[in-house]
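User:
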Amino acid sequence: MTRELTGRDLHEAARKLKLSQKDIAKATGLSIRTVNRVFNALGPVDVRQSTLDTIAKVVGIGTSPEGHIPDPLVVIDLPPSKLLTARNDLPDLFAMLEIASYTRQKAAMLEQMAKVNVHRTTSVSVRDNDLYFDWIGDGIRWAGNHVKGSRVFDLADAAVARAAAERYWKALITNDPVFQYVRTPLGLEFMALTIATDTRTLPGLVTITALGRPQF
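Assistant: Predicted structure:
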């Protein structure tokens, strides 16, 4: 339960993840007005518990109610060509797809993505036939200094780790862009685009994510 949380708690958690009220509204399906009202509450937030829980999960401080059976992990593969019709809704993902059309060098891609949205970009390396995070953008809820250099499978969120690893290996094996919709057991929805880099020399990956459900 998250009833004891205040608007300030939620606002601060969102700030650390570089999430705007618009980002949270998109990720939760709530109106910006509702998110604004929650964030500006001076004391305990006067909204339905489900609304508070939903926002808390997105900003990374929510927990599942005791005895609650988590929802299943949902991962849906989408053709990258879908980004052509969603370029206005998913501009960061579309930008990386365009960048990948003329370079697959990780350093060059990361340099360009830093100009697009460094906060939701992830860099991964392949070492000893395993996947390791170089770094995770600070706008991603499981980011942190402790993640840098760690195995992808060592993420605390096992469901997210498994989905990420499968996406990364698929991109490496096919050498094609992998575009997916993901819904985690806690109800967090996001889109992810992963590109394999330097596949013949130092294999790695670059990923960009966007919160929310797609509207094609």
